[in-house]
TrEMBL record:
Record keyword rRNA-binding present: yes
Matching PROSITE patterns: RIBOSOMAL_L10
CDD domains membership: Ribosomal_L10
Role played: Forms part of the ribosomal stalk, playing a central role in the interaction of the ribosome with GTP-bound translation factors.
Record Gene3D superfamilies: 3.30.70.1730, 6.10.250.290
SUPFAM superfamilies tied to this protein: Ribosomal protein L10-like
Any one cellular-component term (Gene Ontology): ribosome
Quaternary context: Part of the ribosomal stalk of the 50S ribosomal subunit. The N-terminus interacts with L11 and the large rRNA to form the base of the stalk. The C-terminus forms an elongated spine to which L12 dimers bind in a sequential fashion forming a multimeric L10(L12)X complex.
Pfam families for this protein: Ribosomal_L10 (PF00466)
Protein name: Large ribosomal subunit protein uL10
Originating organism: Rhodobacter calidifons
This protein's record includes keyword Transferase: no
Alphabetic keyword roster: Ribonucleoprotein, Ribosomal protein, RNA-binding, rRNA-binding
Amino acid sequence: MDRAQKEKVVEELGQIFESSGVVVVAHYTGMTVAQMQDLRAKLREVGGSVRVAKNTLAKIALEGKPAAKMGDLLTGMTVLSFSEDPVAAAKVCDAYAKTNDKFVIIGGAMGETVLDQAGVKAVAAMPSREELIAQIVSCIGAPASNIAGAIGAPASNIASILSTIEEKAAA
């Protein structure tokens, strides 16, 4: 790899570290190509991606970035998983680590916060953006549903009383 290629990789990694909501660092020693492709496919489904790069280039790319302290995690054979959604990559990596013992999460970064292994698991346990939006919409819709039910209840009660009186009169 010549100097121009290295500079391009450092620039790409710098953009990843700046624009990603979460970056997960993991060891992948012993994983097959098929397993790595499976991980890539799962991350692609949620809008994330995987990047394998030399640790020295990744450390250079981290200089001056909010998550610069994450450089301490970059030792050995590391893979970077990232997504714009602050939860997506962590969820996929956590689930994948449970099924593949060769994929070991070391830590990561979420904005300026450097995460250890437990921190990544905590982020993975958080609801995703879509789940949060669904919860907010249901909270907003519940009072309107209750109001509609309360407004319609007296009319329904009157109709049921009238039908009961009508049935008694007919009998």
